[in-house]
Amino acid sequence: xxxxxxxxxxxxxxxxxxxxxxxxxxxxxxxxxxxxxxxxxxxxxxxxxxxxxxxxxxxxxxxxxxxxxxxxxxxxxxxxxxxxxxxxxxxxxxxxxxxxxxxxxxxxxxxxxxxxxxxxxxxxxxxxxxxxxxxxxxxxxxxxxxxxxxxxxxxxxxxxxxxxxxxxxxxxxxxxxxxxxxxxxxxxxxxxxxxxxxxxxxxxxxxxx
Amino acid sequence: xxxxxxxxxxxxxxxxxxxxxxxxxxxxxxxxxxxxxxxxxxxxxxxxxxxxxxxxxxxxxxxxxxxxxxxxxxxxxxxxxxxxxxxxxxxxxxxxxxxxxxxxxxxxxxxxxxxxxxxxxxxxxxxxxxxxxxxxxxxxxxxxxxxxxxxxxxxxxxxxxxxxxxxxxxxxxxxxxxxxxxxxxxxxxxxxxxxxxxxxxxxxxxxxxxxxxxxxxxxxxxxxxxxxxxxxxx
Lengths: 209, 234
Hints:
The complex is a heterodimer.
Chain A: H1 5-10, E1 21-26, H2 30-40, E2 45-50, H3 61-72, E3 78-82, H4 91-99, E4 102-103, H5 109-114, H6 116-122, E5 127-131, H7 132-136, H8 138-143, H9 155-159, E6 164-169, H10 174-187, E7 190-195, H11 199-206
Parallel strand pairs in A: 1-2, 1-3, 3-4, 5-6, 6-7
Chain B: H1 3-6, H2 15-27, H3 31-43, H4 48-68, H5 74-98, E1 104-110, H6 118-129, E2 132-136, H7 143-153, E3 157-161, H8 170-180, E4 188-192, H9 198-204, E5 208-209, H10 213-233
Parallel strand pairs in B: 1-2, 1-3, 3-4, 4-5
């Protein structure tokens, strides 16, 4: 199964059909989760990703997650949802509670990568965050959906209130850092890089036995 | 766009065709054409209020419906809003001079911790277009800012906006403080923003959740009508 960014963005990733626990995740987290599974030898886990582009219309995430849970729940002992709230306004948490499924804590991946408590403490209202995935998929998630390729004059309306682009680096990759810097310049924002690693994504998945 | 469309000369169109063309231009986000259309209608003796409601708000309502129905997306709506803003900039001083009817007054702002204002700005503009006086508090508003504005501006409606799951609970802080101070029932409280829903609006004690700018205008009008009816029967 392909794990290139474009496929993860548009189609997601199908499960392999092995293991006791199915991780039902956002495509934006696929590489990180696969890396954790491999590094830790978590053979009891399988991964199924929904298309990452769902984030552009977060109101559609709960329905997509529900359909996937209902489709796969008979094949696994447990399903764990690897989405945070992700702009669903509590609807995803309500869905998981209704279906008796656990999910990652926190408002979004920017928060759990840094650690939810630490992120909340920072209270950075004028920061715009990018992860490794979003740095790579900047065109698909920022430029095109916001119409900036067709109407660059809208930039100020979207980003005029932001001050800094924070690149939360999951991996130490100089080429990605350069890309992130270029994205900050394009948006007219100051640049900051934080090496977060996998943060609470790793510690949460570790608890699944 | 075809050559034929490029060749349209707005001043040569009759009123009906010009308004129809302005609907199209608004839909396409053509600010200069909208400004030109507004000036032509003014020269023809149209009342500023009629231009606002019949040409601009009428056109923007179509944009709002197509956004709701998934035909238009945020960038196109913003371009349309920008075009409407151009027309309103011409009309606003004239509306003040000609004493256009005022439907009500609204104080609106994005809540503390949140700097997102695109939706709020659309609501402000559409409310103004519908004849409301709007006092826009901007972004990142603490409860004190809202309460101060309620006191000094004496609006009919308080509007609060939030884009983030993490900031939307602050709306309850504002409403609870209004209750504590015994002023909650003096205002209609409308809330909106991408992660909100009707259930959330009810849970925090707002009068209504508004899904988009067009719904906000209709909801605000309906609350104002109720208020007037209550006044008439009191």
